[in-house]
Amino acid sequence: MLNKFRVLAIILIAFFTLSFLFVANKVRTQLYTKEMPLEEAEKKAALGNPDAQYNLAKAYYEGKKVPKNYEKAFELMQKSADGGNADAMFDLGTFYFEGIGVKSDNVKARQWKQRSAQATRRKIAEL
User: Fold this and answer.
1) Are residues 86 and 80 in contact, defined by beta-carbon separation less than 8 angstroms?
2) Which label site among 18, 84, 95, 103 has the fewest CB atoms less than 10 Å from its CB?
3) Has this prediction a pTM greater than 0.85?
4) 125 compared with 99, residue with greater pLDDT
5) Distances (CA, A) of 48 to 58, 66, 73, 76
6) Sorting pLDDT into bands at 50, 70 and 90, what band is 18?
7) Is the pLDDT of residue 31 over 50?
8) pLDDT band at 55, cuts 50/70/90?
């Protein structure tokens, strides 16, 4: 009987933990990333818009409507992260960790992931 309660408790904890992580990721994406057409992203990115830079970086990374170019994706992701986009900060950490368009650097990867978490917490606190 006690084992059944333990199993049920573990299942419930796992369910709520996964639910929280899913919702937190959705909130982070909705707070920072605004999808836009490629032409609009190119114009706004040239003017320094962090959301546009992020969208354009993703396009170059994925090869959507533009040829894949990891170096260009990294450059735009860096600009977007420097401009305060938390999604870009998170993805830039991944670029550094995996060496996408840049030499792999675990220290910088961790720093950018932490900056993303801090920026997301601040934004959520403002709600």
Assistant:
1) no
2) 103
3) no
4) 99
5) 16, 20, 15, 10
6) low
7) no
8) very high
> Which helix (H) or strand (E) covers residue 23, if one does?
helix 2-32
**Local structure of 63: helix, strand or coil:** coil
Q: Residue 70 is part of which domain span?
A: 31-126
Torsion of CA 62, 68, 70, 72, to 10 degrees: -110
**pLDDT (tens digit, 9 = 90+) per residue, 66-97?**
999 999 999 999 999 999 999 999 999 999 99
CB 109 within 8 A of CB 97: yes
Give me the number of domains the chain comprises: 1
Cβ contact 77:57 at 8 Å: yes
Backbone dihedral region for residue 15 (phi beyond 0: left; psi -120 to 50: alpha; all else: beta): alpha
User: Residue 20 has which token pair?
Assistant: 């929280």
Helices 106-126, 2-32: inter-axial angle, 10-degree rounding? 90
Q: Please report, in angstroms and rounded to a whole number, the separation of the first and last CA atoms in the chain.
A: 43
Q: Write the CATH number for 114.
A: 1.25.40.10
